[in-house]
Amino acid sequence: MSDKLALLQHPGGSLLSHKHECCKWRSSAAQPRKPISWSLICGLMLFCLGMISLFTGHVASDLEWYSQRLMKRRSYFKLEGINKGPIDIWQSDYAKYFYGCSKRSRNFPLAIRARSSNGYLLIAASGGLNQQRTGISDAVVVARILNATLVIPELDHRSYWKDDSDFANIFDVNWFISYLAKDVTIVRRVPDKFMRSMDKPPYTMRVPRKSPPEYYLDQVLPILQRRTVLQLTKFDYRLANNIDDELQKLRCRANYHALRFTKPIQELGQKLVTRMRAMANRFIAVHLRFEPDMLAFSGCYFGGGDKERNELGEIRKRWETLTDVDADEKRRRGRCPLTPHEVGLMLRALGFANDSYIYVASGEIYGGEETLRPLRDLFPNFYTKEMLANEDLKPFLPFSSRLAAIDYIVCDESDVFVTNNNGNMAKILAGRRRYMGHKRTIRPNAKRFGPLMMERDEMDWDTFARKVKAFQKGFMGEPDEMRPGRGEFHEYPYSCICERPLSDVVDNKRGDPRSEQGNQGLRERSKEEEPALGAKENEA
């Protein structure tokens, strides 16, 4: 590219040669003029035309070269006519053109064994289940960047969620280790004999958020090599979004394949999905973040009068750095989560009938049943894990992360996934559902919905529904919403979504990814990429 830019700047050669010719012309101006022949004039004209042609030719070729590179990148999820007309609210008509692809390339070197690695990497993940999930996926990539042996990550026991579950209580450790064996060496713990031989305890540090690979190589690797055992704390969103495609694919392998829930969680989650399917061929999963602390932190007002203002105001005092905010202004700017009632109105306006079945995934809802009643009135076929699981849920009740894992499974398996916010679970599931076939995923267009919900009493239903449909274009989980570099990679895993050859896109029962047979075929192909579970764990 640099040589092409040079030609654009100096079409006829070096700038110095032009100055030299200019000076010669000026110095000859003082000498007696000689007759200028027509052949010389014609020659100069031809020379100038040649130079113009040369210049424009280089510009054209340069623009063509650049536009080809640009189009190659921008055509990555570009489909003619997509989102221009009415869409199927239950599934994307364009999903069949794309598939999740995270298979390691042949040029990606095998993992370095523990004895040959640069040391042991300890990770302390933070936050709730899905925040920790991002940290674990990124930790796998960081271990690869550092050529380190990854120790099974520690989960956060001190956050708001107050769950003392360990990694092995939520995720299948053997599967995690064996699935990533070719990418990263993973062990359950640092060998005891090695720990006893250490003069100092493991070095602890916290890296800045969204640090690029260069930071880890320049700042973290020297410490790891010097101390051999290194712990990174508060590890969530500590790796940059934009990294090498092979590392991005490793991110996807860790998140979408290696992190598999334990058998008890998986079985109960699938049991709830089966019970929903027994009642309806298709269902909607709604993830509601409407906990008291979350609402208090937002500073928004949800129509509960002085009681709400006083209760949430007291909770808000826990954060000394928070200042007073204008609740109406925040809502007008789309900074407030939708209420359960507003989520129901959005779904009805989009065209979901009131006999649709919905599964509500949530923690503690502020206001309880009173807050949920408007949503239940709009969709009487309303179910939660507590309603479906009955006694089966009892062993999980003391553990918020395990309960969240059950909700995660049902939301992932739903035909339509809807969220009232853009939190960690919403992002993680949106990315997974894109990777698994662009299953319909609806997130509110917050900037437009804030003002609309404030003005909904001033318009009739048809006007409101028309506006909702218009505002939601681009927020329905269609493939063309993917853009390289857009948002968090865990929400938009663009490096792990490939375009299917047109010859493979056939609308028959076996080939159509939207059919049950087609989905079965995709599942069979994905299983072929997974290693046998009986693989031995890596030894130190």
Write the layout of secondary structure elements.
Layout: H1 2-9, H2 15-27, H3 38-74, E1 98-100, E2 120-123, H4 129-146, E3 149-151, H5 167-170, H6 173-179, E4 186-187, H7 192-196, E5 203-205, H8 213-227, E6 229-232, H9 245-258, H10 263-279, E7 283-288, H11 292-298, H12 305-316, H13 327-332, H14 340-350, E8 357-362, H15 368-378, E9 382-383, H16 385-389, H17 400-413, E10 416-419, H18 424-435, E11 440-442, H19 446-454, H20 461-471, E12 497-499, H21 516-528
Parallel strand pairs: 2-3, 2-6, 3-4, 5-6, 7-8, 7-10, 8-9, 10-11
Antiparallel strand pairs: 1-12
Helix pairs in contact: 1-3, 4-9, 10-17, 11-12, 14-15, 14-20
Name a few traits of the molecule.
46% helix, 540 residues, 21 helices, FucosylTrfase_pln, alpha/beta, glycosyltransferase activity, globular, Rossmann fold, single chain, five-stranded parallel β-sheet, fucose metabolism
Write a structural description:
- With 540 residues, this protein is of the alpha/beta class.
- The protein folds into 2 domains: 114-257, 3-Layer(aba) Sandwich (Rossmann fold); 263-503.
- Helix content is 46%, strand content 8%.
- It contains 21 helices and 12 strands.
- It has helices at 2-9, 15-27, 38-74, 129-146, 167-170, 173-179, 192-196, 213-227, 245-258, 263-279, 292-298, 305-316, 327-332, 340-350, 368-378, 385-389, 400-413, 424-435, 446-454, 461-471, 516-528; strands at 98-100, 120-123, 149-151, 186-187, 203-205, 229-232, 283-288, 357-362, 382-383, 416-419, 440-442, 497-499.
- Strands 4-3-2-6-5 form a 5-stranded parallel sheet, with helices on one face.
- Strand 2 (120-123), helix 4 and strand 3 form a beta-alpha-beta unit.
- The two termini are 47 Å apart.
- 35% of the residues are buried.
- Residues 504-540 are annotated as: Disordered.
- GO terms for molecular function: glycosyltransferase activity.
- The chain crosses the membrane at residues 36-60.
- Residues 506-515, 522-540 have a biased composition (Basic and acidic residues).
